[in-house]
Amino acid sequence: MSAxxxxxxxxxxxxxxxxxxxxxxxxxxxxxxxTYGTLNASRSNAVLVCHAxxxxxxxxxxxxxxxQSLGWWDNMVGPGKPVDTDRFFVIGVNNLGSCxxxxxxxxxxxxxxxxxxxxxxxxxxxxxxxxxxxxxDRFGIEAFAAVIGGSLGGxxxxxxxxRYPKRVRHCVSIASTARLSAQNIAxxxxxxxxxxxxxxxxxxxxxxxxxxxxxxxxxxxxxGHITYLSDDDMAEKFGRTLRVDDIQYGYGVEFEIESYLxxxxxxxxxxxxxxxxxxxxxxLDYFDPARDFxxxxxxxxAQSEARxxxxxxxxxxxxxxxxxxxxxxxxxxxxxxxxxxxxxxxHGHDAFLLDDARYHGALRGYFEGIARRxxxxx
Amino acid sequence: MSAxxxxxxxxxxxxxxxxxxxxxxxxxxxxxxxTYGTLNASRSNAVLVCHAxxxxxxxxxxxxxxxQSLGWWDNMVGPGKPVDTDRFFVIGVNNLGSCxxxxxxxxxxxxxxxxxxxxxxxxxxxxxxxxxxxxxDRFGIEAFAAVIGGSLGGxxxxxxxxRYPKRVRHCVSIASTARLSAQNIAxxxxxxxxxxxxxxxxxxxxxxxxxxxxxxxxxxxxxGHITYLSDDDMAEKFGRTLRVDDIQYGYGVEFEIESYLxxxxxxxxxxxxxxxxxxxxxxLDYFDPARDFxxxxxxxxAQSEARxxxxxxxxxxxxxxxxxxxxxxxxxxxxxxxxxxxxxxxHGHDAFLLDDARYHGALRGYFEGIARRxxxxx
Lengths: 378, 378
Hints:
The structure is a homodimer.
Chain A: E1 6-7, E2 10-14, E3 18-19, E4 25-26, E5 29-36, E6 46-50, E7 62-63, E8 77-78, E9 83-84, E10 89-93, E11 108-109, E12 114-115, H1 125-138, E13 146-150, H2 152-163, E14 170-174, H3 182-196, H4 214-228, H5 231-237, H6 256-271, H7 274-286, H8 297-301, E15 307-313, H9 321-333, E16 338-343, H10 357-374
Parallel strand pairs in A: 1-7, 6-10, 6-13, 8-9, 13-14, 14-15, 15-16
Antiparallel strand pairs in A: 2-5, 3-4, 5-10, 11-12
Helix pairs in contact in A: 1-2, 3-4, 3-7, 4-6
């Protein structure tokens, strides 16, 4: 085990216009990037980690910035970890449109000298992947040993395999899906309505008014949070335990679960940008690679050349096991090399972020296989 | 089959103070009531129908009021229906604190001459049952042949069996639970937060300001609505079908499911009172008869003397089958006569309101048994 990582984010700027799927063009943009480990001479040991809704480029280690916070997937990525940075060169990229340093709604639009706000164009999973491909170019990485992500990050891994087949040797998609269900879209839309209907949203130009649609963001986060946990896990952690001595017959916090959720909502509203929340949920809703292939996921995945690992958790009801199984079936149908990992974990969707010996053990083994196949020395 | 029912609501006033579980006392109150069929001479054929969150006393038939709307359980209650009003005298009561004519937040508080608004005391399922018992007194009904309800209505049926054991011969609890889970409370609390944080809520005194917390109510209803439908049912009905020709890359309605949910939210916000929504969700959260018996549901249900029918639907994830099964087990444990009915229906929680031949057939048979046992002539 090596010393703990200290990661230094770097801003990578691009002046070449980026054509977005919506038809809009971003003339220039910058992405916040963090790397861990060392790129080998043959540039064959690079792993791209894609993040989910509220995460960032800060994947592992202790941030060199003021926050000093631990990376969001520090239990997975680092020296001696399943994705071993003593062996692999790992890149974390804050997605375009997010709010942790990459160009997005909170950035200044050079054309107007004001924050983009609601004028920032909607981006898609495919746009993110295109933007990330330019980061790979900048590092001189022709092909990634692996592209890996959970949830929305898993969608990006899938999109990479289809959009840049020659540049992805292994695709690891965890707790994800190839398209949102009606129920998923429903939850996203309610969350959006909470934000859009907050009077402080000011049609997305809240920054100019010096306000934040805090209430809407908080409700949106609370809704999301319920879907990240399993019913059983919530019952186990909170049950009907009261936070107070006895029922108060009022609308203050009474049950532990209320305290927990409201705290999560308030915390989120303090650091996350509302326009970013809106556009990321839209990217989730829009993702549907089968759509360009007459609804055939197999036909879409036939574009890929990678080996796949599809991992999922039995109690995940946000992206249920069946959503992963249909990806596995489609990959088998087109003859791809696919492993699947079903973990019987109680923690619902959030399980992909948690430490679980079977999950991490399997990922560790899979990445050892990647190292062998790509000739990465131990 | 007799002629269609035309129901005339009547306001039943009570001037005897009602002690609420919270400690508050309501000096006087009125309940809006509708009846169907004829009370027999021995007063043995009365059935009380308890309503869920957004329903009312208007259970069956065509309302005699301006709205002329069909009762919320018209497929279950009426001449020749499973709960046959040619045989039974059926009573629907709008619950205390609701907004369809019974005393509640929208009523005038005689002490102040102004609408109660947020000053209306929180009520519990037990309080509702106490208030309903006085309606029974008024009709001279010593014991109900049956108390029946779905969802929150099913909780009232259970509470009746425990609180007034001698007055309930049969308890029919459908798609219900003996206590909300942490996840249930979580959804309720997010819905409440959406209302409470709407600037138009004005701490519950919106009526005095001539406004309505429409946005909060709409978001609350959207959240609720998602939990009423099963994932599969939503996929079947809406899937990823677009409402528009193509993706618009904006926040207007794009998917059918968005159109449906927003419509449900807007419609609800036009007719339902926000304070009522808040207090009813609290009554749901508080219901926990086992709590007074050291957590033993069996001990709580040992108070009852009724026969029970516990019915539930396989795809109901709001009140999952396991919640009903634990009621059945507790009733068996204390030697009660209990039947259970599991219906493999795709429609989730809402299935209790829908027409399903197996479900209605079983209820019809059960009520024929009730008629036999209580000596009600066909």
